[in-house]
Design brief:
- The protein is built from twelve helices and 13 strands.
- It is an alpha/beta fold.
- The strands form two sheets. Strands 3-2-1-4-5-6-7 form a seven-stranded parallel sheet, with helices on both faces. A six-stranded parallel sheet has the order 10-9-8-11-12-13, with helices on both faces.
- The N and C termini lie close together (11 Å).
- 41% of the residues are buried.
Length: 352
Amino acid sequence: MNKIAIIGSHGLFANYGGFDQLVNNIVKYSNKKDLIFITQPRSTKIPRNVPKNVLISKSLLDAPGIEGLIFDSICILKYYFRVDSILLLGAGALPIIVFLSLFKKNKIIVNNGGIEWERKKFSKLARIYQKFIFNLSAKFSDILILDNETFIKYLPKKYKAKLSMIPYGGFISKKLQSKKEEFQQKYSFLCESYFLSVSRSIEDNNIEELCKTFSKSSEKLVLISNLSSSNYGKNVLSKYKDFKNIFLIDGLYNKDELDLLRLNCFAYIHTHENCGTAPSLVEMIIAKKPIISLNVPANRYTLSGQCKYFNNFDELQFIIQSKFEASENVPNETLSNKYLWNNVAKQYLELF
């Protein structure tokens, strides 16, 4: 029996981000002979109907921030001498594994999640540490998972880890598609033509520039973001909430409703600047809707060069005001299948 510890998520059946969906699907498609260890952070309850091959325990600590670093470190200490393999999602606590490896050698698989040290939201000290951890994971882990090929250029000149290119996966719910009319009162724009964008409210996702672009247009924009969770997002909400053609949705975590809005948009606009394989973009690829993306290497790699690109927001304004050929910018079936969770989870399970 292969014993595996998965560390770095919000626990089983959590829905906070890409790593949580990854954990849920690794468990879903796992070999039932494998034994998987997961610790739930303080803020999430131990779920019901836990699969028999998954052992869940509860922590007194939470997952985000500095507390999350301590949480991951304790999980490593808890599981290191009990398992054969560790999947570390986010490598902030990796130095502890380096120390423990002096006593016992496990298979260490690391997914750093992205080039976090280039994000403006982090302090200079935090960026230095994140860069150090990325280099350490390349030199120390057995397998380093990159979700985007463009990350290769950030690797140190000498590294020992085996590289594995595995993207995030996605799934689109169609439960509410036949009930669209029932949601018209809640989402007044639902039966009209609208552009959609989904992202976290951080500066390098460029949501303020996106809203500014649509403030000069009569076209409708629906922006879904955790606006009230940051000063940047609150500023965007304050500046653009009164525009008749801009619909700001401050957090939407109901998967069925979110996918209803995805499936009914005219086109999706992806404005992320420093993401790898962004889960929000993956979902739209699977939805097979027309996509307009910021032209950066990571986004082009995720889309395999398909769909429409803009280099700046003046170009985006021209695109949305011109006759945008939606049907010519829909991801094809091959690209869509690449990101289905069953295919992604299978690639992870083959690493253990």
